[in-house]
Model the fold of this input.
Amino acid sequence: MEALSRTNFGRSVRSARVLYRSTSGDDGAPTVVSGTVFTPVGDPPPGGWPVVSYGHGTTGWQEDCGPSLSVSLLGQDLVVDGFTKRGYAVAMADYQGLGSPGVHPYSDARTAGFNMIDAVRALRATFPGVSERWAALGGSQGGGAAWSADEQASTYAPELNLVGAVGLSPAADVKGLVDKAVAGTLTDDQGPVLQAILFSLARLHQDFNLDDYRHGAAKQYWDVLASCSGPDVHARTAAGKALGPRDLAPSSPEAADRLRSYLAKWALPQRKLSAPLYVAFGARDTYIDPAWTIAAIKRACALGGNVSWNEDPKAGHGDIDWAGALDWMNDRFEGRPAVNECS
Done:
């Protein structure tokens, strides 16, 4: 992190770019994932620096889209700076296939959840004075990853002590995108999300035929829509706006069923939570339909989870107020019991 160390933020923390072992949520295969780890400067408190494993939102779906490759962490440096100033050590996974070789399974929260957990292990192996007590917090793609990390933590990392997880506008279950694509009712924001999912599935499954799903502008601008760097990235917004209402629609009921089955496999919840979960989302979210998030919360409750949530009637996707979430997380580190709104 030599370039980062020359910034004002970089001089206020200890930082490192790391490569570490993790696990594919799809098939359980071992993987190597990149990320960044940080601690405040100075002496740690008794018991070590408490840890926040931060799950970033969508940065792209190709190898060069990893935040660890960027001096500004692709805009995440301010978030990390805020946590370290509050006295937390921070682990931030790039996620599988971002920042290091591999295929990024965009929208696979389980894989990203494993990556977040293993980033905590990498942090503790890199710097001394780091506690085993940790929280997962993320937004959008990272919100789903934090939720999944909560589900997997008790069995995947029993040596760590997860105090709670926060999902802000979490991408928990997006299989509803298929029905909206068929009906031609995808929002302007949901078209590029579905394109990213299709891009990932085609790389993961050699028999997945993209031409069963991409038409018109989606096919014309496919490479532009998939970019996160270079000259194409400047045209990505315009390409997204050019998508027609059915440019990403499955060509047949069979194609729709196949896509739906893949997204159902990735959807949350998948098992009972290991620790309390806080979910905040907006009633005006144009990326993830609020009804999908509410349904996922209800299923998590039915599995016996401890969940608190807040639906902001005025918020969309990226303008969720973090204050309540941070207070909730701080209370978990202080050992205060979480209010379970499932009961």
